[in-house]
């Protein structure tokens, strides 16, 4: 009997992209037989393998107890193979080898939530991306090995639901108490897309007829009480199916599509072929129990996983370095889908806000890496904002440059060329180039180098010659590991406005053409360049990077008055928001006067609230303390930022005075027909309520209490709860108790209850201790850990004081129990080196002290990168 235990970290386990080699064997088919028992699970597998290149036959396996192994029906003697903690190697294997293994695994004690694990008493699920399948059976577990899977699942009848990918081809009984189901997936797929589910769940059923006439059975599995909360996800699924047909010409290819919800999940969801597994937080949506933001997220994640069926599943990645090929493209696709669901400008604002709050800091610190990394120790550490969000931006830039029609021709070519294959980023860019007829090869530079480019621009108006000259310069901060940084192609969407009237200028199209400005987009792909607009009869104000046409840091010599002008007159909602953000950042970080912003808001809001209340609500977004901290590279003092931000919030509350209360009282979300409009009104009301409270107006508490009590909508209830709790209103503890009692059986709502308290502006170490000692706190449920840790981290003063210990303790505890989540939580501290002394050195000592205590590749790699500044 051999046990492949957890690997011990060795000196250098770095894997390099340049070392990629084809697998020596392919797998034509795999038959899996998974028998679940209370104390163990037995997995028998039969792989039909064929030699492709010279070399040993290599099967990867981790934490597997090998009971038997046969090749071409002959038992393999111990001296005929090598087994270590990570792989089983068979030298001199025949060219056609039928490999049969039997192993024992322990899903019932798998806390890492990777491979097959028991998620709750009555539920077993899998998570195999990127390398979980090797924890189920021995297999060439790499994305470029595609095979046809047949799966037999057997379990006690107390688990009535037995699911795997593909079509159900047989089911039956095994003795009195056990039963089985056999599933076959006709599509070849890599092992990371394998899934099975064994449990006791209820199901919501529907169906969808594809553009090709295929009638697809749709099923969402969840706990019985949660089935009513699955309708929004079901509608979003049908909508996504139609959307992908209409926008990319991609119909669904199987007769069923199943989604299973579980609360024990490390991330949002997983796109297993025809059998998605979702975190409950990304599938359950209901106005009474979950917020508007959560409802939007459910729709976008449902779409994201569905869109993977083509971008990820039918065309997959050759190796894990290419992760952003499927993730960047699929995020771009889900963002575009969501832009159709609500105010497109607000969707863009929210996506860019995430990019700037997470990806920009990541890319300027020790965890910076190219969207396509060229080396890693633990691939799970590379499911990052850079791979996902910056990856999406690269696709958006190419799409912007090509325009709708050519982009579609490019994607059509990609699907035509590579359906059924495991490919690279180069294959994608080449197909787009061939299909569109536009050479996009320069965009590969974006994939291959790290860092956020700085885009410096200057504008000069010459009234005598009626010209407006714009000059551009791009640069990247030097990076020790990437000495040859190159200029990247930057699509700059722009418009000129008449400074007197606020109207957009219609420009001389011939001159635009000469300058290379097409459809309002100038492609800046040199280190420096200048363009000139002619016949500009009035002083213009330029709006640059409209809709955030490239993921760069823009520096332009705007006056505050110019920004106020853009806040009011830009017709691109994203750039209105960007102007507000720049003004607010200047007030907070460069001590500019708040008056210009306040006046611009007064001038803009009355009309905008009528037209687009959601966009109006976003114009109030005062950059968070965390975001502001990420803009500071040295001598960062979180308390100073907090003080300035609080002062600004008070100024705004006072300056906007009676406007807030009058508007609050006049707004009624129930009078809106569209969900997105009602959501906007709710968002606005919550902001205004917080402002009224900040003015010190005691009636705010009564308004909040009334809002809390007279609604069935979670966004309204939570908005009111926050105002009462965060301002220590006399009603605070009563509403907290009420909320708890109302929702005690609703895990997602209770997550919010934890978060509100952890994010209290005056939360102390004791507050957090009390929450983590609460009987509903559970270190086995990532959602619950994130609710408290996320709440704590909303206040960087806390993060960088007692929070340091909190996150280090979590990383230590999770290092063995759940290293994926442990590594992720530790990253909260990655900007420690920007702190002012003595905090900087204190945190460094604590991080150094953690080093010898952690063993997982996940946490160790993150920690050593973090310390390598
Ligand atoms: N592809 C999965 C992510 C898997 C993460 C593994 N640590 C979800 C998604 O991006 O759709
Ligand atoms: Zn994805």
Automatic annotation (TrEMBL):
GO BP annotation list: proteolysis
Residues in Peptidase M1 alanyl aminopeptidase C-terminal domain copies: 560-867
Domain Peptidase M1 alanyl aminopeptidase Ig-like fold: 451-556
A Pfam family reported for this protein in Swiss-Prot or TrEMBL: DUF3458_C
Leader peptide range in chain numbering: none
Sorted UniProt keywords: Aminopeptidase, Hydrolase, Metal-binding, Metalloprotease, Protease, Zinc
Domain Aminopeptidase N-like N-terminal: 44-193
CDD domains: M1_APN
GO molecular function: alanyl aminopeptidase activity; metallopeptidase activity; zinc ion binding
SUPFAM superfamilies: Leukotriene A4 hydrolase N-terminal domain, Metalloproteases ('zincins'), catalytic domain
Residue ranges annotated for the Peptidase M1 membrane alanine aminopeptidase domain, each copy included: 233-445
Listed InterPro entries: Aminopeptidase_N-like_N (IPR045357), Aminopeptidase_N-like_N_sf (IPR042097), PepN_Ig-like_sf (IPR038438), Peptidase_M1 (IPR001930), Peptidase_M1_dom (IPR014782), Peptidase_M1_pepN (IPR012779), Peptidase_M1_pepN_C (IPR024601), Peptidase_M1_pepN_C_sf (IPR037144)
EC number from the UniProt entry: 3.4.11.2
Entry cofactors: Zn(2+)
Annotated catalysed reactions: Release of an N-terminal amino acid, Xaa-|-Yaa- from a peptide, amide or arylamide. Xaa is preferably Ala, but may be most amino acids including Pro (slow action). When a terminal hydrophobic residue is followed by a prolyl residue, the two may be released as an intact Xaa-Pro dipeptide
Keyword check for tRNA-binding: no
Family classification: Belongs to the peptidase M1 family.
UniProt-recorded name of the protein: Aminopeptidase N
Species name: Acinetobacter equi
């Amino acid at each position: 009997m051999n046990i492949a235990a957890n690997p011990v970290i060795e000196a250098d386990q770095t894997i390099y992209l340049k070392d990629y080699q084809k697998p020596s064997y392919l797998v034509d088919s795999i038959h899996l037989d998974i028998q679940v028992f209370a104390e163990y699970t037995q997995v028998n597998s039969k792989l039909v393998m064929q030699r492709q290149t010279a070399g040993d036959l290599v099967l990867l396996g981790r934490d597997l107890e090998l009971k038997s192994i046969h090749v071409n029906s002959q038992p393999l003697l111990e001296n005929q193979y090598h087994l270590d903690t990570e792989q089983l190697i068979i030298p001199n294997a025949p060219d056609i080898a039928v490999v049969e293994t039997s192993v024992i695994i322990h899903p019932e004690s798998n806390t890492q939530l990777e491979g097959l694990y028991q998620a709750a008493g009555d539920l077993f699920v899998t998570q195999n991306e990127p390398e979980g399948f090797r924890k189920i059976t021995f297999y060439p577990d790499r994305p470029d090995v595609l095979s046809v899977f047949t799966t037999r699942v057997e379990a006690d009848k107390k688990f009535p639901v037995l699911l795997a990918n593909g079509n159900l081809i047989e089911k039956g009984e095994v003795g009195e108490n056990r039963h089985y189901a056999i599933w076959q997936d006709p599509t070849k797929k890599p092992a990371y897309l394998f899934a099975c589910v064994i449990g006791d769940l209820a199901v919501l059923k529907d169906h969808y007829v594809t553009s090709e006439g295929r009638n697809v059975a749709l099923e969402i599995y969840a706990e019985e009480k949660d089935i009513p909360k699955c309708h929004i996800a079901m509608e979003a699924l049908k909508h996504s199916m139609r959307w992908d047909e209409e926008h990319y010409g991609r119909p669904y290819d199987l007769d069923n599509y199943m989604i299973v919800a579980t609360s024990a999940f490390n991330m949002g969801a997983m796109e297993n072929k025809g059998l998605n597994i979702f975190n409950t937080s990304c599938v359950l949506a209901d106005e009474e129990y979950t917020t508007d933001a959560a409802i939007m997220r459910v729709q976008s994640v449902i779409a994201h996983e569905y869109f993977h069926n083509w971008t990820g599943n039918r065309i997959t990645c050759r190796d894990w370095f290419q992760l952003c090929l499927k993730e960047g493209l699929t995020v771009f696709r889900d963002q575009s889908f969501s832009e159709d669901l609500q105010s497109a400008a607000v969707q863009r604002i929210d996506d860019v806000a995430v990019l700037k709050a997470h990806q920009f800091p990541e890319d300027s610190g020790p965890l910076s890496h190219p969207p396509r990394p060229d080396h890693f120790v633990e691939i799970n550490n590379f499911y990052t904002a850079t791979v996902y969000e910056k990856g999406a931006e690269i696709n958006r830039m190419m799409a912007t440059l090509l325009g709708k029609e050519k982009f579609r021709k490019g994607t059509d070519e990609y699907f035509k060329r590579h359906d059924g294959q495991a490919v690279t980023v180069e294959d994608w860019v080449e197909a787009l180039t061939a299909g569109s007829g536009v050479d996009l090869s320069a965009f590969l530079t974006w994939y291959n180098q790290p860092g956020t480019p700085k885009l410096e621009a200057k504008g000069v108006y010459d009234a005598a010659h009626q010209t407006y000259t714009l000059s551009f310069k791009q640069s990247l901060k030097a990076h020790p590991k990437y000495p040859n940084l190159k200029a990247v192609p930057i699509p700059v969407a722009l418009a000129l406005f008449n400074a007197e009237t606020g109207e957009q200028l219609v420009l001389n199209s011939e001159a635009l053409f000469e300058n290379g400005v097409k459809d309002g987009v100038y492609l800046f792909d040199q280190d420096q360049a200048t363009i000139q607009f002619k016949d500009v009869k009035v002083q213009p104000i330029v709006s640059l990077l409209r809709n955030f046409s490239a993921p760069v840091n823009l520096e332009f010599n705007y006056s505050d008055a110019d920004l106020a002008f853009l806040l009011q007159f830009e017709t691109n909602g994203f750039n209105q928001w960007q102007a507000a953000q720049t003004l607010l950042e200047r007030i907070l970080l460069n001590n500019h006067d708040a008056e210009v912003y306040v006046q611009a808001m007064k001038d803009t809001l009355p009309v905008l609230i009528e037209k687009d209340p959601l966009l109006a609500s976003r114009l109030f977004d005062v950059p968070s303390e965390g975001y502001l901290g990420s803009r500071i590279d040295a001598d960062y003092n979180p308390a100073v930022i907090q003080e300035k931000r609080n002062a600004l919030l008070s100024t705004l509350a006072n300056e906007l005075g009676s406007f807030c209360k009058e508007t609050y009282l006049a707004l009624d979300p129930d009078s809106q027909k569209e969900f997105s409009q009602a959501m906007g009104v709710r968002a606005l009301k919550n902001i205004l309520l917080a402002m009224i409270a900040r003015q010190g107006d005691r009636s705010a508490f009564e308004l909040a209490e009334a809002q809390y009590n007279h609604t069935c909508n979670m966004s309204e209830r939570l908005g009111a709860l926050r105002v009462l709790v965060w301002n220590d209103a006399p009603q605070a503890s009563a509403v907290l108790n009420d909320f708890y009692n109302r929702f005690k059986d609703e895990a997602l709502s209770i997550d919010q209850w934890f978060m509100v308290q952890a994010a209290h502006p005056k939360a102390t170490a004791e507050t957090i201790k009390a929450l983590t000692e609460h009987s509903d706190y559970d270190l086995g449920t990532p959602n619950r850990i994130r609710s408290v840790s996320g709440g704590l981290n909303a206040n960087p003063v806390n993060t960088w004081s007692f929070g340091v210990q909190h996150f280090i303790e979590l990383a230590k505890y999770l290092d063995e129990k759940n290293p994926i989540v442990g590594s992720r939580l530790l990253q909260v501290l990655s900007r420690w080196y920007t702190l002012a002394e003595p905090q900087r050195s204190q945190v460094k000592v604590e991080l150094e002290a953690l080093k010898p205590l952690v063993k997982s590749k996940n946490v160790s790699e993150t920690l050593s990168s973090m310390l390598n500044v």
